[in-house]
């Protein structure tokens, strides 16, 4: 028994295409050798074709061609794996033979998602992010300012000697450690892999100066207002505007009796006093003075 494959490595340049994995029997004396296909991915082995039937999700999108070759339709990046063709020929001297075929399904990157701060003060830190997760193999990232590429190291470009940034091509992160006015511009990012590339739209980042004088002036105004409020409260206390209610209420209390006891007057006593007062006033009008008390 002898089998072979024209190529042990296959690359599908894009997803959703048809791929043929060839397994050719060169010589055998067994009339009907047994054919099996297996998929090995992340250390796990599963059947693709077993007992003359397709297995798993390959039932609707794969078939056997020319008795031994495997055809996979609508490939996706999840089909990236090692495929093993095993042939068993009991009547041959060599009863079993196998070959491994590495299939890589390459997927072009999708448009990356880019985040760029709109405005950053001079001297502050600024982080720009670029990422997409559809491409296979994994994408790498490059940043552009005003359509000109930014090198991974700012020190390697004479035009960027005033910039201080770090660019990570693997994560797509661009970090300015301390921005300056020259970092103002339109920023865009490109995600690239073996299958192609994709670019996000340009976004403007403005670097502005901090108004130190205005900030100091604002702080001084606030302090002056607080001082005036404090002085006003102190003056109000000194002039008695904030006297407590207890002291205010005591000024309206009925004076105590000479013996130091406060008496509660009944309604009859109040009526008698009023009657007595009216009598006294009437006597004063007549020119006579009478001593004593009259009760009704």
From TrEMBL:
Cellular compartments annotated: Cell junction, Tight junction; Cell membrane
Entry keyword Plastid: no
GO CC term (a single one): bicellular tight junction
Annotated TM spans: 212-237
Membrane topology listed for this record: Single-pass type I membrane protein
Assigned protein family: Belongs to the immunoglobulin superfamily.
Name listed for the protein in its UniProt record: Junctional adhesion molecule 3
Natural source organism: Amazona collaria (yellow-billed parrot)
